[in-house]
Hints:
The structure holds two protein chains of two kinds.
Chain A: E1 5-7, E2 10-14, E3 19-24, E4 32-37, E5 44-49, E6 55-58, E7 61-65, E8 71-76, E9 85-91, E10 97-98, E11 102-107
Parallel strand pairs in A: 2-11
Antiparallel strand pairs in A: 1-3, 3-8, 4-5, 4-9, 6-7, 7-8, 9-10, 9-11
Chain B: E1 4-7, E2 10-13, E3 19-25, E4 31-37, E5 43-51, E6 54-57, E7 64-66, E8 76-78, E9 87-94, E10 103-104, E11 108-112
Parallel strand pairs in B: 2-11
Antiparallel strand pairs in B: 1-3, 3-8, 4-5, 4-9, 5-6, 7-8, 9-10, 9-11
Amino acid sequence: TQLLEQSPQFLSIQEGENLTVYCNSSSVFSSLQWYRQEPGEGPVLLVTVVTGGEVKKLKRLTFQFGDARKDSSLHITAAQPGDTGLYLCAGGRNNLFFGTGTRLTVIP
Amino acid sequence: NAGVTQTPKFRILKIGQSMTLQCAQDMNHNYMYWYRQDPGMGLKLIYYSVGAGITDKGEVPNGYNVSRSTTEDFPLRLELAAPSQTSVYFCASSLSGGDTEAFFGQGTRLTVV
């Protein structure tokens, strides 16, 4: 099992603040994915990072893949209430393991 | 396209009963997965399949069985339901392995009483 640990587990911030979510593993991944899940729904893919050191931007979200391909981070700039949800990193080869999750609440 | 379809959406089982959760995808994806998600937690991989006729265990396979006789269908069987199996179950599919986008069904909320 490739364990993916996320931190923090819970995050509650005011609208307009910045935040960073971390995803760490002792294993090397060929790629890592980030998903967002809203209540009552399945996760939806945000981004896939595939190259060590890669940085990808999706509007106010910035994703980074560690140089050693064992970790990744998600940074949100000027968080909005619509960013509220469960953020999950995931990785695998013939399978897909998910991280422990970060539940983000953005307070208006 | 319907994507990934799970049935039923909700189910209450008594301890010791059995049931099958259905999952079907119409995207011709080779890879399919079953996860369980406990309240406030991430997803735990139960079983996965890399193609018709091939299945393998994930992180938490005990108490479950799967089969993959066609590319489209990947049912999950619960034998002798226990309260610890109360959870939300998600089925997903992807074109290839963990480096391609996984598409999820709407989930099945199962309660064992």
